[in-house]
Amino acid sequence: MNWRAMLFGLLLTFALFGCSGLPATPKAAPPEQPQAVQSADKPSAVSTPPAVPAVQPTWTYDAPGVRTPLERTGPEIILNSYQGGSNAWLFLDARGQATAPSFSLGGRQAGGLRHGRWQGSVTPDFSRILVQTGETEYKVIDRTGQTLWHGQLRQGKTGSDLYLLPDGKTLLTTVTNENGDGISTVATDLSDRVLWKLEGNQAGDLLYASDKELILGNYDAVWRMGLDGKGRKDLPVGGLKDDGWVISADGSAIASRNKQGGKLFDADGRLLAQLPAGETVELSSDGQRVLVSLGKGGYTMLDRQGRELWRLSFPAELSAHALSPDGTRFLGVSRSKPDESLLATLYDRTGKPVWQSKLAPIPDFPKAQVEAAIDAENRLAYVIA
After folding, report:
1. Per-residue confidence (pLDDT) for residue 335, from 0 to 100
2. DSSP 3-state of 367
């Protein structure tokens, strides 16, 4: 694939809060700031915010076609792109240097959950990657693109998303039974040998996985269970009737979302807080902070009891945003008029801006896919455009 022919894919990397690479004496730039409302214990509505330090990227990486960083594990940043029917993978260190040869291959990346350090299609250390090459065909590859195993699921008629669990040896999928009279959740090893199977109202979609447990759900119930398919414990949160469900990386908090509002539960399904109506809900990795996108450029950060910590109202919807794993950093990327450039702004745990960076205009900006991320160690922020 000719990556240079792709339109988008410039990775811009910024240091956070005085880490190496931040300018020693940043220049002040007139901010294009939203209004920030502080928490009740520190009421200080901002009407005319002060100038915000302007920073330049610590480094950039020109790799057209690359999208959001999947994860930063140890010293590495792992990037993935799906363009033109092919997956591409890049491995970079914290300075933007390649740590392994990039490779591309056909098929689609299987799975799609994002819970902490597990992507649903890769092991936590990124040593094994699951690629679904057809409706039931798959292969497991290593970080160099070499095939470790390839096979075809024979359990069921059709398959939904196929997941590689954190052990790197177990596949999980929900399938329609051969006779079409129901669904089954099936766990197999890489040779398609059935390890366990759930049928009927005992089957459900995978919501969360760790090296110790799974969380599954269907329309009627949500439950925790062991990796062996046993020890089911129903959670009193109702079934998957709401529009969206999010689980913190450590499994300590569960959030639901619908048009009327959402709910926040603890690990045992006890109700912690009612959430405002919003378009999306995100949780910090420890479940202590909840970010709700209110729509029309509005964002609010809540604590575990539902108390508002800060609120930001942008003039228009952000092109991209990112929440740090611990919930104490918020990166907003907005469109700057009239020159169609991008403005990246980092906010601290109180909703106050820390720095800004104005990025060059992007060709065909309305069609561009802009992504943002903050690494797992709270050291670097990324913008991809």
Report:
1. 82
2. helix
What's the sign of the alpha-carbon dihedral 6, 7, 8, 9? positive
pLDDT in tens, 350-377: 999 999 998 877 665 555 667 787 877 7
Res 99 pLDDT > 90: no
Read off the tokens for 315.
């003039």
C-alpha torsion 348→209→250→376, nearest 10: -40
Q: List the structure tokens of 68.
A: 């959001």
The amino acid occupying position 198 is L
According to the model, what pLDDT value does residue 58 have? 85
Among all chains, which residue has been given the structure tokens 């792992």? 78
Q: How far apart are CA 357 and CA 59, in angstroms?
A: 13
- Supply the pLDDT for residue 9: 54
Contact 40, 303 (CB under 8 A): no
- What is the residue whose two structure tokens read 């062996």? 228
Nearest to 36, CA basis, from 345, 367, 323, 262: 345
From 13, 15, 35, select the one nearest 351 (Cα to Cα).
35
What residues pair up with 333 in beta bridges, in sequence order? Answer: 320, 344
Answer whether 335's CB lies under 8 Å from 317's CB: no
Q: Where are the beta strands (DSSP E) in 143-269?
A: 147-152, 163-164, 170-176, 183-189, 194-199, 205-209, 213-217, 222-226, 233-235, 244-247, 253-258, 261-266
Distance (Å, whole) CA 193 – CA 274: 43
> Contact, 218 vs 202, CB < 8 A?
no
**Tokens coding 124:** 């936590």
Distance from C-alpha of 31 to C-alpha of 29, rounded to nearest angstrom: 6
Q: Quick check: 345 and 52 in contact, CB under 8 A? A: yes
Beta bridge partners of 247: 254
Mean pLDDT, range 40-49, rounded to an integer: 42
Q: Give which of 261, 213, 249 is closest to 323, Cα–Cα.
A: 249
State how far the Cα of 307 lies from the Cα of 309, in Å rounded to an integer: 6
Q: Structure tokens of 330?
A: 């918020």
**What does the block give as tokens for 168?**
């790197």
Inform me whether the pLDDT recorded for 255 exceeds 80.
Answer: yes
| Residue labelled with tokens 């040593």 | 127
CA pair distance 63, 3, nearest whole angstrom = 7
